From TrEMBL:
SUPFAM superfamilies recorded: P-loop containing nucleoside triphosphate hydrolases
Gene Ontology MF, one: ATP hydrolysis activity
CDD domains reported in the protein's UniProt record: ABC_subfamily_A
SMART domains: AAA
Alphabetical UniProt keywords: ATP-binding, Nucleotide-binding, Transport
Record keyword Repeat present: no
Domain ABC transporter, chain residue ranges per copy: 4-233
The protein's name: ABC-2 type transport system ATP-binding protein
InterPro entries: AAA+_ATPase (IPR003593), ABC_transporter-like_ATP-bd (IPR003439), ABC_transporter-like_CS (IPR017871), ABC_transporter_ATP-binding (IPR050763), P-loop_NTPase (IPR027417)
Length: 311
């Protein structure tokens, strides 16, 4: 059974805007799913619907087998949410803020649990510090601590590292990995492609209220990625010889490097034929290197493809 199971989810706002258009999505227990999409794609609306903040117009959502509308309390009890906005009481102390969140779910006081959460997030030394005295990165850690206070089994992170520096972002990636090791299911929305590439098990792409795909990260990159072969020549060229034009080569600005792109999923890369043709043309090769398309390149291509198809 999926930990989160979404079927035919629609959300239409009062002004007629359809933010979600029949979304189907199953999220496995203990996995990290990165949900990528441009602004306005429906990422936050989707999270809000699962967390009970937005009421769906149609479709069903189950969390741990509990329907989010019919069995709201049981479903909500399983979910923790770290929102985009840092909305904390500025004069309250860190530890009291986290205790309060636990109490909201009717759980008994557990100082050992609160301490463990604060230590995991490097907040224990700041436990008596007022929120207003914390840095932006520390405030985001407090948001995560609040979301974990009631021991949820599903954690939604909505742009959790927006506005924090690179070092702190990587620290938070390590925290997410530790949560996964504890069996927590994590759904991450992000604008940082490298974030998804670094920590996700599966990648979901959403655009204009529809899920374009959900796939294992490695297989997605292998299926849709392309490799680029860079051929450094011993002598620069003024132009690509006509005999090589059918290979689809491009010439670097300095004339000393030929660039050849090929599909990793194809049975024939065309590299052997290309190298033979280079030799036949009398071109001496100084060095050869390859590079794989990044997840960012794949993502941009998918979204553009869908937008062109809708035009």
């Amino acid at each position: 059974m999926a930990m989160v199971d979404i079927t035919g989810l629609r959300k239409v706002y009062d002004d007629g805007f359809e933010a979600l258009k029949g979304v189907d999505l199953s999220i496995h227990e203990g996995e990290i799913l990165a949900l990528l999409g441009p602004n306005g794609a429906g990422k936050t609306t989707l999270i809000s619907a699962v967390c009970g903040i937005a009421v769906p117009t149609g479709g069903t959502i189950e969390v741990g087998g509990h329907d989010v509308l019919r069995d709201y309390r049981a479903a909500r009890r399983l979910v923790g949410l770290v929102p985009q906005e840092v909305n904390l009481e500025p004069f309250e102390k860190v530890i009291r803020t986290v205790r309060f969140s636990r109490g909201l779910f009717g759980l008994p006081a557990d100082e050992a649990k609160i301490e463990a959460i604060l230590r995991k997030l490097s907040l224990w030394d700041k436990r008596d510090t007022p929120i207003r005295a914390l840095s932006g990165g520390m405030k985001r850690r407090v948001l995560i601590a609040k979301a974990l206070a009631h021991e949820p089994r599903v954690l939604f992170l909505d742009e959790p590292t927006a506005g924090v520096d690179v070092e702190l972002r990587r620290d938070m990636w390590e925290t997410v990995a530790e949560l996964k090791a504890d069996g927590v299911t994590i759904i991450l929305t992000t604008h940082y492609i490298e974030e998804a590439e670094a920590i996700a098990d599966r990648i979901g792409v959403i655009s204009a209220g529809r899920i374009l795909l959900v796939e294992d990260k490695a297989s997605l990159m292998a299926r849709l990625g392309r490799k680029t072969l860079r051929i450094d020549l011993a002598q620069p060229l003024a132009a690509i010889p006509g005999a090589l034009s059918h290979h689809g080569l491009t010439l670097a600005d300095d004339g000393a490097t030929l660039v050849y792109s090929y599909d990793t999923g194809s049975t024939r890369s065309g590299i052997a034929r290309l190298m033979a043709d280079l030799t036949a043309e009398g071109l001496a090769v100084r060095d050869v290197s390859t590079a794989q398309d990044s997840l960012e390149t794949i993502f941009v291509g998918l979204v553009n493809e869908r937008q062109e198809g809708a035009a």
